[in-house]
Specification:
By secondary structure, the protein is mainly alpha-helical. Helix content is 55%, strand content 4%. Helix 3 packs across helix 4 and helix 3 crosses helix 6.
Length: 151
Amino acid sequence: MGSWGVKALESDNGLDLISLLKTDYLPKHKKLTLGGLIGFLKEEGFLGETVSEIDFLYDNTAIALAELYSEWRETGTLNYDDEDSNVWSAITNFSASATARKDLLRRLRSIKNQVPDEDGEREIVELWKESNNWESWDKHLDSLIELLQQE
């Protein structure tokens, strides 16, 4: 699975997302919107066009987006800069319209409810169930859903 923690951003796919945003999105956007990020990630193939398009990468990306939004809401910052780039610290706002929050919430609920793909499984859920961290991952997913529901 390429993961070292229960967060989607603590995975190889999460690092790929951070890198993509750092190089292709953030240099042009100092004020982030959840809807803008969702649209960009659909164009880049990191998210499906609809909730019914189920894929491990799409699920990981949806969770990672919720983690980024949650981090911003809790701290007012996103700390992913390195010695080569400070695009993350240049972000001045991260907002989310009701439509974008609902879209992301539908995606997270689909994961939580283990809606199967065309092969009859939900790969991300199956992999976490097989790990020693299933309960922690499931609680993490619940906390992200709760955040989006509260807004």
